[in-house]
Structures are given as C-alpha cells and as structure tokens.
Amino acid sequence: MNSPHRNLAIVRYVVDQGHTVAEAAQHFKVSRQWVYTILHRFEAGGEAAVQPRSKKPCVNPRAVTDSVRHEITTIRINLTKAGFDAGPDTIASHLRRQGMHVLSTSTIRRIITAAGLVKPQPQKRPKSSYVRFEAALPNECWQADVTYCYLANGQRVEILDFLDDHSRYLLFIKAYPICTGVDVVDAMQQLISTYGTPQSTLTDNGMIFTARFAGMRGGRNGFEVFLNKHHIQQKNGRPGHPQTQGKIERFHQTLKKWLKAQPTARTITQLQHQLDAFAKYYNTQRPHRALAKRTPYEAYTHLPKASPLTRTDNEWRTRKDKVDKAGRVTLRYAGRLYHLGIGRPYSGQKVTMVIVDKHITTALTATGEILTEHVIDETRDYQKPIWKNTQK
Question: Do residues 144 and 138 lie in contact, with contact meaning Cβ atoms separated by under 8 Å?
Fold first, then answer.
C-alpha cells in the first residue's frame, strides 16, 4: 500500500540522508522503478506530488449515459400515466424489448428515485410471511371473481374475470350490468371451447359460484352442476379470507389502477373495449416477476395443460313440499326452478322428494307411499313423471 507518509519517507531517505536508489528500494521493500517515480514527482511538484494517486479509470465504461437515464425516466412516466405497473422489473423488460442494454433493477430504482418519480410507501408486510400456492401446470386451476367499477353516469357495472393460477394468464374478462349465475356458466362454456377443460376452479363463496351457504334449499347452483358435469373440481375460499384467491385479488388492483388512468367509460360497450385493450397488454406485453419475467401468455403456452381427473360427485338431498292445486311441486335444480307433475288427486298433501342428481323420487310424507319418479329435463319448465303410481 502506498501511503503519503511512506512516499515522503522514501524521498527524505534518498535526498536528505544521501542513500542510493537501490538502498531505498531494499529498505522500503519497493522496486527501484518506484523509487525513481517518486523522486521525479517530488522534483516536479514537491511534497504534494508524492501523494498516492487515484486508480479510478478516467472513463467508466459502465457509467449510465444521460440518454439511458432519460429513456428510463420516460418509460416510468409513460407507464404510470397509462395506469400500468412501472417498477424496475417492468422498466428493465421494456429496455430489453427495445434492444437496449439492461441495467440491474437496483440501478434503475436509484435512477427513478433520484428523478423524484418514486413516492415513499409505508412499511409493507414481508413477502416471506405469506403462504403461497401456485398450480404446477396451466389449466390446473382457474381463479374466478367479480369486481366492479362505475360508468360516467354513476352506474355500477360488474366485471367477471377468470385467471389461470399457474401463468396469471387472463382467460376471460367481461362487463355486465349485473353478473348472474347464468353469465358465469356461459363464460365457463366459452372458456372450455377456447382453452380446454380445467382440472379445478377456485372462487369465493358468492351465490353465483356456490349455493353451499344457501341452506341447501335449492341444491347446487348452475355453476356447481356445470363443474360436476365436466368433472372439474370446485374449490372455494374460506369465508372472510380473500387471501385464498390472492392472485385474482391482486389482479383487480392492477386492473383498477389502469382503469383509473383511462377516460371514464360512458357505456358498457365502451368499457368492454377498454377491458379488451387491457387484457391484450396484460397477457402479451406485461412481464411478471413471479414468472421469471415472462408474460402470462408466454408462461401459459410454455407447458402442457392439465386436465380434469375422472370423477363425478352425485348430488344427494331431500326436499319437503306441499302439492299445489294444479297437482305440482317445485324443485330448484342448477339454479333454475322446475315444476314437477304429481297429480291433482294429491293437492294439499305434504310430500318428500329424494333427489339424486337429476333423478327425483317423490313420496307422501305421512305414509311413505311413492307417488312419482322424475328425471329433470333442463329444456322444460314442467316435468312429466317417468313413472307414476296409478293405484289411487
């Protein structure tokens, strides 16, 4: 190590005490060339000239140029104005797609912070504290949920979306005045036609997704019947625990941030155009850190798709009713109300129905005498019995 004290000592050792260069080199354990260098510096500039000089190169080949800094801040500003994620990872991806040298995310963060483009955030919960689940393959699990926004006239609009758990690929997004159970089933049918049948779904416990908290009064709703018919496993989050559907909940934050940056839609049609544009960007241009910086589309198409397991869960339940004046009872199946013909002679009688999926056996509650058997025909409201007790 060359200290200013040693360099000056070498000079004094030679100049003031009369030692030779060779003796100085041996005494201070340096090369003779270095002793000559120190002496020449002293002769040229005095004591100040023998101070150790910086080894830092005159030019730093890795220094960030002003043009790159400008590009980084421009990307940050444009993404923020458009309502998109504008973090260092996203900016790095845009640089890569433009064919530019990609800086580290820490360097990008320093640049946008120095430019005053980062707002301080409160301390967040550590990511390590979350228990994470991720499907191993595309179509292994689809998350679905409904969120809302408002049109320019104040009308509330509901938005139904489906997200592939493995890839975060946005499979479906559509706006409705009110999203119904029929809409959910129609969406699933459309999705299966486009992407194939998933192995499972994950939703909250809203009535459009499950009738599990309806007291079994109507049995399974249309979505549940549809899933069972296609051998799709249904998963529901724990009540009051939206973190179970964390990916789609986080997606809604991204969606609403983007919508907030757009002109407020005046009609549902205009809103749908905005949602379609967002879906295209989200799926094909927005890289995701959890996907090794791939886009959801790249992650969804990278691996083979999962498929349903062979399974069928029959619906078993009972229902009590009173035969009306027209000789009918009512039964809700797959979210739709049907009228079952029993016969006018039994008007006013209390009956018990045993339901095994679409097959219904009806008997008098008082005696247990079997009156009719029905198989639900979903194309008709009134259901004729396939067998009827004709002894009365």
Answer: no
Mapped onto helix, strand or coil, the DSSP state of residue 150 is: strand
CA dist 334 and 181 (Å) reads 9
Question: Residue 295's closest CA among 78, 97, 71?
Answer: 97
Return the ∠ at Cα 93 (arms to 87 and 97), rounded to 5°: 145
Three-state DSSP class for residue 154:
coil
What is the CB neighbour count within 10 angstroms for residue 94? 21
Residues counted in the chain: 392
* 3-state DSSP percent of the chain in helix, strand and coil, to 5: 40, 20, 45
DSSP secondary structure letter of residue 19: -
Confidence (pTM): 0.60
Does residue 264 surpass a pLDDT of 70?
yes
In whole angstroms, give the CA distance from residue 92 to residue 116.
18
Q: How far is 231 from 220, CA to CA, in rounded Å?
A: 15
Q: Where are the alpha helices (DSSP H) in the chain?
A: 4-15, 21-28, 32-45, 66-82, 88-97, 105-114, 181-195, 222-229, 246-260, 268-284, 296-300
Strands 233-236 and 200-203: parallel
What kind and span of H or E run contains 164?
A: strand 156-164
Q: How far apart are CA 314 and CA 311, in angstroms?
A: 10
Distance CA 254, CA 173 (A): 14
Identity at 391, one-letter amino acid code: Q
Assigned architecture for domain 139-281: 2-Layer Sandwich (3.30)
**Which CB contacts under 8 angstroms, 24+ apart, belong to 315-319?**
315/219, 315/220, 315/225, 315/228, 315/355, 315/356, 315/357, 316/355, 316/356, 317/216, 317/219, 317/355, 318/352, 318/353, 318/354, 318/355, 319/352, 319/353, 319/355
Band of pLDDT at residue 226, cut at 50, 70 and 90: very high
Q: In the structure encoding, which two tokens stand for residue 171, read together?
A: 């499979």
pLDDT at 162: 97
pLDDT on residue 214: 61
Give the DSSP H/E element, type plus range, for residue 341: strand 336-341
Closest to 169 measured CA to CA, from 301, 277, 292, 276: 301
Residue in 372, 368, 360, 131 with CA at minimum distance from that of residue 241: 131
